[in-house]
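Holo-[acyl-carrier-protein] synthase structure dump, as promised
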Amino acid sequence: MIVGIGVDVVDMARFAATLERTPALRERLFTEAERELRTESLAVRFAAKEAVAKALGCPAGLSHVEAEVVKNEVGRPMIRVTGAAADVARALGVKRWHVSLTHDGGVAIAYVIAES
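structure tokens r here:
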């Protein structure tokens, strides 16, 4: 059963300019493993983090680093949640995450489904 759905779109040029203007955002928004990725990959991961929050109902107290895009053994993107995000997901009965990521034409898009 679907518990929540989230989608987010990021303008990659605007996102890149924001990261350049405010370098400390990398640490606030991304896990250590994510921080060294290219801007396009960061933009789509940011969109995924926002989509996770939306799928959880946008509860207060979530941190962007509590949602991470990881890859499985064949390179498929997956969502890993920790901290408050994991607590909320557990309370909602989320057992499985589905994620689709894309970036093209200057935009990054993430679609996330939380399933019980």
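The CA atoms of residues 12 and 105 lie 9 Å apart.
lmk if u need the other ones
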